[in-house]
Design a protein that fits this description.
The structure holds two protein chains of two kinds. Chain A is built from four helices and three strands, in the order ααβαβαβ. By secondary structure, chain A is α/β, with parallel strands linked by helices. Chain B is globular, with a radius of gyration of 16 Å.
Chain lengths: 92, 155
């Protein structure tokens, strides 16, 4: 029994968490996004919200205040990102 | 985006697509359809196409292809390659889709199929179904593929 518990603890310590692969990115929830959009409207923060879906899908439905840079033709639209390198970009 | 809509948040819709029923085939059904069509050289008695593959994967636009993107569904039926946005204001491309026979839309995962099908329904193209879970599932099932010819890059 003791050995089983020890084995289980060892596994839990060394088992990578499922979210590890996403550690390179901060993930924003829908509720946080809503708040951030409100804060942008009131001038508290600034960021670019980028809809990376195809133009057809963007035109069908998008989050208000987004710009469209389709992943399939990002080179064509990349100028929309502007020149300010440290500006926060939130793609979806 | 799905979560945003699901939460009842506001959306902007500059050109909403018509709400229609979108139908899908699964990979096993498509394999059977292709086998049957291939046996007839993909033509019906009037020499019209029995089945057409509409491959609109994003990777088709890339010169350099990675692993699975190098392959397409193997068939004697014709394969049309185009990007989703290529269809916007492009009646020549839309009209190039046959009205006879079935058209099967192929994307990476099947997620974008409904947008293409909804869009084309506006042009009375109603013979199109999506491939459930897309090319990923076709490859996973181990069905026949062939290398994409270099010259067939879209865009």
């Amino acid at each position: 029994m003791k050995r089983s518990i020890l084995f289980l603890i060892t596994i839990l310590i060394f088992l990578p968490f499922p979210g590890v692969a996403l550690e390179r990115f901060d993930i924003i929830t829908t509720a946080e996004m809503k708040q951030m959009l409100h804060d942008r409207e009131t001038g508290k923060i600034d960021f670019l919200l980028v809809n990376a879906l195809d133009k057809m899908i963007y035109n069908h439905a998008t989050i208000p205040g987004s710009i469209n840079i389709p992943l399939s033709s990002y080179k064509q639209y990349s100028a929309k990102l502007g020149t300010q390198k440290d500006k926060l970009i939130i793609p979806y | 985006m799905k979560d945003w809509i699901k939460a009842g948040n506001e959306i902007t819709a500059a050109a909403p697509l018509p709400a229609i029923n979108v139908n899908f085939v699964d990979v096993d059904e498509l394999q059977k359809l292709l086998a049957a069509a291939d046996r007839q050289n993909c033509k019906d008695a009037d020499n019209k196409p029995l089945l057409t593959i509409l491959d609109f994967r994003m990777s088709r636009a890339l010169q350099k292809k990675m692993s699975a993107d190098k392959y397409q569904i193997q068939t004697r039926c014709s394969t049309i390659n185009a990007q989703l946005d290529d269809f916007i204001n492009n009646e020549a491309l839309i009209n190039s889709l046959p009205d006879s026979g079935q058209i099967i839309a192929v994307s990476e995962t099947g997620n974008r199929d409904r947008f293409l099908i909804q869009f084309l329904s506006q042009y009375n193209k109603t013979n199109i179904r999506g491939l459930k879970y897309g090319m990923r599932n076709w490859l996973k099932a181990g069905y026949s593929v062939e290398e994409i010819p270099e010259r067939s890059v879209t865009n």
